[in-house]
Amino acid sequence: MIDIHTHIIPYVDDGADDWATALALLQQGEKDGIKAAVATPHILSEIDYRLEPEIIKNFKELKVRAEDAGIKMKLYLGCEIYVQPDMTLEHTLSTLNQTGKYFLTEFPMNAIPRFVAEKFFELIIADKVPIVAHPERNIGFMSKPMIAYEFVQRGALMQVNAPSLLGKHGEKARQLAFTLIEHNLVHFLGSDCHRPSHRSMGLREAYKVIVDNWGTETAKNICFENARKMLNGESIEIPEPIPIEEMEKPSIWKRVRTFVNGR
Ligand SMILES: [Fe+2]
Fold first, then answer.
1. Homologous superfamily of the 2-261 domain (CATH)
2. What is the Å distance from ligand 1's center to 7 Cα?
């Protein structure tokens, strides 16, 4: 399995606090069966790229320390970009494994900003592929899941968090993660790990959930095959996305009738 969303580099974001925590996370992930992981520290705005030299330095040191500790997991570098109207992908970290193609981006939790559709369009026609981080945790997608279908139709990909499939981010996030997979709208899995005790590194349990509900081939694509292609900068063939029918809300008259009839 390949974990494409982790906060394992110490001293650069709200992830691993120190080297010991970072190594503990990696050991946890390795025990879980993760063979490769992408370090994706938060980049909240263009100004945050000033941290780039430190992130690269600490990433290199993490690789050395992991090797010294006998950890076999392969480590790659990228970042998680907080979506912004002026975001560019011109920095070393911007695309995952520096292939110039795929980038991981998160939205504010409470909405999908209006500028995103246009921004994505601009990037997609320049052959950049957005991977939306944990859409199942976003209130905008929760209230209008059909928007996820529209994003994928237009060329974006989606990554769900492993803990969401296990209900660890709440029932609504779990339900939406299931709905998205059901409609062929999920392409990657990530742990979004921060520290071993809370928000740990692991994909295996979620992998099993996917196998049990949608079969081994879907699980392999989501947990390994697509990530392998992404790291190589290769294109990814995805299954045809299925539109999400939204539950129709009863009209005001229907509700009045129900009230009057006592049903
Ligand atoms: Fe994250």
1. Metal-dependent hydrolases (3.20.20.140)
2. 7
